[in-house]
Amino acid sequence: MTDDIAAGQHYVELDGEYDLARKDELTAIFASITNGAPVTIDMTRVTYVDSSFLNELATIRARLNGRPVTLIGVQPNIARVLQITKLDRFFTFRAPQ
What we know:
The chain has helices spanning about 25-30, 50-65, 75-85; strands spanning about 1-5, 10-20, 40-50, 70, 90-95. It is of the alpha/beta class. The chain has a single domain, classed as Transcription Regulator spoIIAA (2-Layer Sandwich), CATH 3.30.750. Helix 1 (about 25-30) runs parallel beside helix 2. It is globular, with a radius of gyration of 12 Å.
């Protein structure tokens, strides 16, 4: 997982599986997002998420209070989970470049 502020936006790159075992890691990286810039989360290499990931995603969305959050490269299985939980309504989705 990488975290970088560049070109006026906050960019986070995630990889692997995100379940309860990685909750603290994810919480720390999302907590580091404090400036007022838009946020981009690259999920191209994320293969699995559980409810702890969904909770952290919902928490950051609420904490950023209307700032744009873009999810890049969300895998179809994860996109489906976001649709079922209706979290997809709170994010912009973009294909990887």
